[in-house]
Specification:
The protein is mainly alpha-helical. The protein has 5 helices and 2 strands; from the N terminus they run ααααβαβ.
């Protein structure tokens, strides 16, 4: 991520101050990495709902952690509803 920010600074798309501010705000989010997806479940979801791998992995995580799915993607939203997950966000 930092590399992308530096490239954008160099191209004068953002300032160094903006980069620093963004990184400080990002640290406040307390993001946690999940490194233990249930691969069989990800594959099942991808196949059953014709999802790409990252959407299936996101849905698997939401189901495993019993957390809502936030998406504007209609296919992912339909799969989440079909799997009984709570859905956040409007779909078109």
């Amino acid at each position: 991520m930092r590399n992308i920010l530096v490239v954008n600074e160099r191209r004068k798309r953002i300032t160094e101050a903006s980069t620093n501010s963004f990184l400080r705000e990002l640290e406040r989010l307390r993001i946690r990495m999940d490194r233990e997806p249930e691969e069989a479940a990800v594959l099942r979801l991808a196949r059953a709902h014709r999802l790409c791998a990252h959407h299936a992995a996101y849905l698997e995580l939401a189901l495993r952690e019993a957390t809502p799915v936030a998406t504007l993607d209609t296919e992912l939203a339909a799969a989440a509803v079909a799997e009984g997950a709570e859905l956040i966000g409007a779909t078109s």
